Amino acid sequence: MNKLMENNILRLRAPEPEDLDLLYAWENDTAIWQKGASIVPFSRYSIKQYLIDYKHDIYVDKQLRLMVTLRETDECIGTVDLYDFDPFHRRAGVGILIDSKHRRRGYGMQVLMLLEDYAFRFLNLRQLYAIIPEKNNSSIRLFSKTGYRKSGLLEEWLASEDSFCHALIMQKLNS
Prior knowledge:
The chain is of the alpha+beta class. It has a domain at 10-126: 3-Layer(aba) Sandwich (Aminopeptidase), CATH 3.40.630. It contains six helices and seven strands; from the N terminus they run βααααβββαβαββ. The chain has helices spanning 20-27, 30-33, 44-53, 58-61, 107-122, 137-145, and strands at residues 10-13, 64-70, 76-86, 91-98, 127-133, 149-160, 163-173. β2 (64-70) and β3 (76-86) form a beta hairpin. α1 packs across α3 (44-53). The longest helix has 16 residues, at 107-122. Residues 10-175 form the N-acetyltransferase domain. This is GNAT family acetyltransferase.
């Protein structure tokens, strides 16, 4: 039987103090902000406190952040999150970031499949969902390739400079 959260190429692991500089760079990359939920920079101190205070208990925190590493070198290439965890309704949101120098290699798809296996087999969730800006074609393609389907449109959901943009809700049910 395969181990949870790893395959022959990637491993998902808990954040470590050594990830501080990498998390700091990703959280403060303003090019990523428009694709996610960040709207302000994070200090090194606040990220350090997050790493210290984070319980790594999805039932307490209602979220789970995992670092994506290459098994062969242990190089960290991204993060993936379960957020808005709802154990009663058995669902969670999914967020993923693969560092720009590691994109277009199939890692994102593998990460989503590893996370899905953990969420569906181990946490016994019924569904995962993602809220994606309507014009983020690469994320829409990624989630579609891994079996998520478009299930709704949130009109003017995300602020973007002087206007608002629509967001898609994509879901994957545990069959």
